[in-house]
Write a structure and sequence with these properties.
Three copies of one chain form a homotrimer. Chain A has about 325 residues and is an alpha/beta fold. In chain A, about 40% of the residues lie in helices and about 15% in strands. In chain A, the strands form two sheets. A five-stranded parallel β-sheet of chain A has the order 7-6-5-8-9. In chain A, strands 2-1-3-4 form a four-stranded parallel β-sheet, with helices on both faces.
Chain lengths: ~325, ~325, ~325
Amino acid sequence: MAMNPQLNRHGELVHLLSIEGLPRALIHQILDTAGTFLSVNDREVKKVPLLRGKSIFNLFFENSTRTRTTFEIAAKRLSADVFNLDIARSSAAKGESLLDTIANLSAMHADMFVVRHSESGAPYLIAQHCSPHVHVINAGDGRHQHPTQGLLDMYTIRHYKKDFTQLTVAIVGDIVHSRVARSDIHALTTLGVPEVRAVGPKTLVPGDLREMGVRVCHDMAEGIRGADVIIMLRLQSERMSNALLPSADEFFKSYGLTEEKLALAKPDAIVMHPGPINRGVEIDSSVADGMQSVILPQVTFGIAVRMAVMSTLAGNSA
Amino acid sequence: MAMNPQLNRHGELVHLLSIEGLPRALIHQILDTAGTFLSVNDREVKKVPLLRGKSIFNLFFENSTRTRTTFEIAAKRLSADVFNLDIARSSAAKGESLLDTIANLSAMHADMFVVRHSESGAPYLIAQHCSPHVHVINAGDGRHQHPTQGLLDMYTIRHYKKDFTQLTVAIVGDIVHSRVARSDIHALTTLGVPEVRAVGPKTLVPGDLREMGVRVCHDMAEGIRGADVIIMLRLQSERMSNALLPSADEFFKSYGLTEEKLALAKPDAIVMHPGPINRGVEIDSSVADGMQSVILPQVTFGIAVRMAVMSTLAGNSA
Amino acid sequence: MAMNPQLNRHGELVHLLSIEGLPRALIHQILDTAGTFLSVNDREVKKVPLLRGKSIFNLFFENSTRTRTTFEIAAKRLSADVFNLDIARSSAAKGESLLDTIANLSAMHADMFVVRHSESGAPYLIAQHCSPHVHVINAGDGRHQHPTQGLLDMYTIRHYKKDFTQLTVAIVGDIVHSRVARSDIHALTTLGVPEVRAVGPKTLVPGDLREMGVRVCHDMAEGIRGADVIIMLRLQSERMSNALLPSADEFFKSYGLTEEKLALAKPDAIVMHPGPINRGVEIDSSVADGMQSVILPQVTFGIAVRMAVMSTLAGNSA
């Protein structure tokens, strides 16, 4: 356990870098904490003073207004001071190294870095080199991990399905390029889901994904038949342009979630999506807006989960 | 009244989308509330806790740092948490629809959207589709309306002139493209101003503006003679390039407000402008900086009026 | 003293525009205040309510995410409301004059402007024209001054060396284009440092710098021999492209600070740098990260010094 850079020697979370290696009890503890914050977001005054006076830096080396905003909301509802660094235009552009930037912000008494980076592993590098009082949250690194998305997906599944150990979960689309899929697979496996399916064409769901303990399905009907949970992934348009896929229409015909296909899953199956959705590409509007869709509740849970992660980290020391 | 999407069934304001359709008493009530906030802005601690814990989102689909800043100031002085979404670089750019963006932010427990959009009606669309607990403020939509500017102009006129029912108000310049002019005309008419004049060349002040109840004047002298209030509009330079106007010099000669022309108005006439001013294009510097100019007081009143609108909306439920 | 636009008639600081003309006692008083804030930054809750309800505007006409962030951190730790104006995209771009922008923000009840501008003197112009209740801080103007950097450098020197009157201080690099160097030279002279050396090639350290009371050294060994403090300046890459310098390699060979060259200074000499550093251009990594480097403590002190400047200004009236 001492090898896991996310945990201190008491097994407490000091950084959130990956779902991989998080013990099941710790995941449930974060989800429990998120549940208490959900009520805060429903209050007249949506604020608790838990992180008052803390300085949280959003370091988005890869731009994502939506994800950055969710962390900013979570931090402000915990009463922290939030600093959004337009990192593309800052010292990084002047040739300063990533680690020098981090050392400087640490010297300004930063308490937490929320990091998105196009290169896998960048948040690990930061966590290894920053001051002991600083906590790092991975907000998406390359194709590697997006752990807060993984946790909010687990919160959503637990909320609607209660018991992970009886479930069949289908993840559909561009699995191989998806850090969301990777985080979800680690989480679902850790939480004891007996059948996790990776569904999509061979170019996006290669057979060696089986090594992660998933059932690989290139046929959509096989993939979602009898599923309790269907997680649709966003199709990046660059997959078409670089010839991994023939066309959006073609993809939708084979793997897009329609009401007809959804009928193959369990009658009470829920439909999830990390957003933003491409209507008519990976999901039909009637499904996205339908009774079984929990896409917007995912967004609501996402704020509470990020508040839970931030407050958990702030309470633990290296 | 149930038809007016801005008002709930008790006739209370739940969105501010347009001056059109606002009852006279409601306008006066907002201006009265603004008066109480004016003193807050003069205090040592310029803050009241009225909107503490509320999440206000600035959604500027059309860029305007100045207007966005006035809303941000107003919100922070009411102790709200403010989120500026760089919407041009966000999910909207990834192909997500306006309504999906709104649904997502609502799911994050947004309390208020301040919307600027280049298309007329966008704030209406948002108000129709957002959750019942969310309030929408139109911060300028296309050529349609800019209601907080209209209200701050009314605050300014009431402050200096007291009684609307005895006034002659001249609006000078590019009336046809101006959402400020449209909001002002609706407000002045509602508040009982007996004579509202629209002054400018035929290309910018067409005759059918008479349908809005204004007197159309293509001659500047006729337009401002005897006026109590002169509202100069900003001349957009693109009007020259698309041949609606010969040149800035030409325009200034005919319709630019100089001391000579101002002498035609009442001796105690006030000069207003929504800013930013083009010195030497629509207004001479000696007038802009002169004794009769109330351009900077308009800016001061604008903060108080936006605080009044925000706190009024927050107090009413759909 | 009435001539100094930074001081009111009681000799109190109302703007911070330049180190030049600041009395020695006033500098020490700011450094003393910074010392008290240093402990705030180490606290669990890094916040004091001194500037609660104050509106501080970051007006960066020249982009600098890092410097802007240090002022934003300082302001928020004093509980002020901070407004970052993306000035390049705002009214300034619409043709509004600098002074009109300032007049408008003053009318919104701004309390403080933090100004960075590519033209020397811009903060003076603003200070001369803004309302009496507004304070201006120069965050770097052209080649002229960067007074908060000067003050944090003095804080650093005082922290490590105690007595200014026994010191030899070498400033190395592109002195002629550096506002940091200019501010440091004024500060060191005022504080009684007996020997200040300006070290670098003739193109970057011309002989007429002697008029500022410094010893000009074109030889690096002569420049740093026996020094107590070495301040390395950042080398702007544009100096190479415009032929003031042959190449980065050439510069490093002659003036880059290596362990060998550092050995010529006093054994307990400290090494400073305003950041961001160019490793291998003006400073070797082993020196930047070495025992004598106080580059990161400078960053920490910088927040406290900016808090001290802001709170000092807020307490004084024009």
